[in-house]
Amino acid sequence: MAPGPLQRSTLVITNVHLANDSGDTASRQIYTLVCTNGEVHSIEAVNGATAHDEPTPRVQIYPDATVLDAGGHGISLPSLCHAHIHLDKCLLLPGRCDTLVKGDFQEALEVTARAKASFLDDPEDLYNRGRQLTVESIKCGVTIMRAHVEVDKTVRMVCLDVGLRLQEELRDACDIQVAVFAQDPLFTSMDSAEPGENYLLLCEAARRTGVSAVGSAPYVEPSITQAKKNIDLILDIAYEKMLHADFHLDYNLDPASEPLVWYLLSQLRGRIREGRWAAASRVCVGHATRLTLFSRDEWDELARIIREEDLPLTLVGLPPSDLYMMGRDTSSPPRGTLDVPRLRREHGLRVGMSVNNVGNAFTPQGPIDPLALCPLGIAIFQAGTEEDAKILLESITVDAKTAIQTLESRSKPFSLRVKVGDRADFVLLDQNDTVYEVALRPSYVRTTIKSGVIVAKRVDSSWVMGELGSQKL
Ligand SMILES: [Zn+2]
């Protein structure tokens, strides 16, 4: 496509590979991508070149542009997205919470609750941990995240205040969607007919400017009836405040438990029919591990309803937490996390994947990097084909963005293939040439681009005796 008149703020990414829709390993074509005013302005193949020789003509046409020359190596993909990450209770383990003795879910709730009790007195620690999480994420290639911040009697508004502060401070490098989140029950006891103080605080938090979503964990309620009321209350707040809703739902592997996703679906469909749901609002369902016990017919039914009614609802698997926490009581722990490639292949369901927790009692292990979910997914789902790799990568980029509804995700269909007019939010992976390589062995060296501006670089600074002669760092 021939470029039209260019305006200021031009970024030229040249001699770089791009994903295409027809199996990218067959293509070694390299491209020049011109981004202006935050969008992709033009995409041109570099003539017949497979490696970097000379600066391309395209670079010379835009003398005032910032030029990022990949040198014939590396692939530029849509930037990464944390569809679901906890900003306030990250990086607590080890050292900032009690030592784990049992490592089970109840202990995680108790240990984290005790750690939370100090948040009000030490907001700087809260801020520093949240900032570290966000900055490290940006270096990985994340330009947008939904950050859950807890609101309840223990922490009141302190986590929210920190989330909004980071949202403002880092706005040029990362869009932080703040989700006010009730990890604790909204109902104080089994006998409570009405929600208690946690609910009132959540309503207050949802009114704050800068909040995008409201969420809860219905499974913590004293009864199943109250869990359903919890869902109703969150959907009510979302509608009244024009927010997205985000649930931690069906977080178990108990075949005898009622999957509350059906209740949520019926509520959402009813509200849409009755005009009690904002068109721009979406619903995210995190974990949903109970659904891994679904029969083929149940999955068909769920996928059919979502697809045929174009419901604004996305499932988001959270493998680091799901795998750690689910199945602890069984002799052979199951793969209790949503099988993203299979659900896409067999049911046409696009499922997001996200990191959820980093360094706490709910998920002690694992990196901040969303791309690390791809090799993990390949292993746990035995999903090693090129098609699987593409699905997994989409789940942490375009599908994750769809889950939390970003500007670019409103134009369907969406894929890894860059198009003119797309938002210029990319991650450039220097040590990978193809989508397949990215999923198998994600490049450490990366450049993060948001709105056509380079916002982070991560370089490999290392030295091995004998490898680089006498050069030392
Ligand atoms: Zn979560």
TrEMBL record:
<keyword id="KW-0378">Hydrolase</keyword>
<dbReference type="InterPro" id="IPR052349">
    <property type="entry name" value="Metallo-hydrolase_Enzymes"/>
</dbReference>
<dbReference type="InterPro" id="IPR011059">
    <property type="entry name" value="Metal-dep_hydrolase_composite"/>
</dbReference>
<dbReference type="GO" id="GO:0016814">
    <property type="term" value="F:hydrolase activity, acting on carbon-nitrogen (but not peptide) bonds, in cyclic amidines"/>
</dbReference>
<protein>
    <submittedName>
        <fullName>Metallo-dependent hydrolase</fullName>
    </submittedName>
</protein>
<dbReference type="InterPro" id="IPR032466">
    <property type="entry name" value="Metal_Hydrolase"/>
</dbReference>
